[in-house]
Design a protein that fits this description.
This protein is mainly alpha-helical and about 375 residues long. The chain is about 70% helix and about 0% strand. The longest helix is centred in the middle third of the chain and has 39 residues, at about 220-260. The chain is globular and about 85 Å long.
């Protein structure tokens, strides 16, 4: 296992490099950029979906501070749209502050060099480091992602096992109908419905409609803080998890059905083993391999998949909303830093899942596999 582990770790380096290179190259051909963003702010033509550009700090310059330095000279020869009437020297100064006075390849290798030491720099348009910005948004995404994943696994796996045991029976039929209906309704529609019904929309107000905690949360007792925390999370988690239950439950059911029909299960039953021993002592270990295979994707996806609209509806300021705003605002340090961190995290979790494979089924030998 040690040799396989070393190969996988070494393979992470070119994989991560390739992800960043492809993403960086695509960004170079995408229209717009931080310089154009500031110009649009100055000329009043900014029509982005979100605008949080404040005073310039760190590596960037906000439109308010930049407007004081914009001259009236003609810049019609500028390659930036909307730059007419701005001083060419001012445009060059913007390029220098954003790092665009260097060639693209030089900027990329400088970025990767800094990322090796986890130096992600500062946001272009916020006077705060990227790591600090991610740290501020992380509690919301961790709360939504981790609890949603745990709920999905803790509910879907037992449900899928029972559906497999009672395949074709009334329990299997009506639960399948409920799961399909829940899967067919988009999460954001469920979120809006929950707000209307239970958060003071038109009926009762049993749950809060915004935020992760109450305003006076710091004054609560420990038990009060825990209750308030989960009280705020109840509706967002329901909206996020309903669709995830369906996929996991059916995957678990089909995996168990495949194993139950195999010869070794009939042999175990013929030997007189109890159904529980057959199901959890033999079938469970083999059927769960497919579930474990999907764990890395579920773990990483829990932080982003479908979270943006849910965060917006329930006024939760997490990584999903941060990523969206960073892309819209062309805040490249935040965009590339989050991509790097979660790509690295995904590769590590994939490696961990291989270890879990061996714990579930010791017969698996990664040493004999080609990476």
């Amino acid at each position: 296992m040690g040799a396989y582990l070393l190969k996988r770790i070494l393979l992470m380096i070119p994989t991560l490099f390739g992800i960043m290179l492809i993403s960086f190259t695509i960004i170079q051909f995408a229209p717009g950029g931080p310089v154009e963003r500031v110009i649009a702010q100055l000329t009043g033509t900014d029509s982005a979906a979100t605008s949080r550009i404040g005073g310039g700090g760190g590596d960037g310059m906000g439109a308010g501070g930049a407007s004081q330095q914009a001259g009236g000279a003609d810049a019609s020869s500028s390659r930036y749209r909307g730059a007419q009437g701005l001083d060419p020297e001012f445009i060059k100064q913007l390029e220098k502050q954003f790092g665009f006075d260097k060639p693209a390849h030089e900027r990329f290798f400088l970025m990767m060099k800094n990322y090796l030491t986890f130096d992600f720099g500062k946001s272009y348009f916020r006077d705060i480091s990227v790591l600090q910005l991610i740290k501020e948004k992380l509690p919301v995404s961790v709360s939504l992602g981790v609890w949603m994943m745990l709920l999905t696994y803790l509910i879907s796996i037992p449900l899928g096992i029972r559906k497999a045991v009672h395949d074709g029976e009334p329990f299997d039929t009506w639960t399948s109908g409920l799961l399909v209906v829940g899967y067919a309704i988009p999460g954001f529609l469920i979120a809006v419905l929950l707000l209307i019904l239970f958060a003071g929309g038109s009926f009762v107000q049993w749950f809060p409609s915004r935020g992760l905690t109450s305003d006076n949360w710091v004054h609560f007792s420990l038990w009060g803080k825990i209750v308030d925390y989960f009280w705020h999370l109840t509706l967002p988690l329901i909206a996020l998890a309903l669709g995830a239950f369906t996929t996991m439950a059916f995957l678990t059911k089909n995996s168990f059905l495949d194993e139950i029909r195999k010869q070794y299960v009939m042999t175990a039953r013929a030997k007189g083993l109890a159904e529980g021993q057959v199901l959890y002592g033999h079938v469970f270990r083999n059927a769960m391999l497919l579930i474990i295979a999907g764990f890395p994707g579920a773990f990483i996806g829990a932080f982003f998949s479908g979270a943006l609209l849910i965060e917006t509806i329930f006024s939760l300021d997490g990584l999903g909303l941060l990523s969206f705003e960073s892309i819209i605002n062309r805040d490249y340090p935040v965009v590339f830093a989050t991509l790097f961190i979660f790509s690295l995290l995904g590769l590590v979790v994939n490696l961990i899942s291989d270890f879990v494979y061996t714990l579930v089924d010791p017969r698996i030998d990664f040493e004999s596999r080609e990476v």
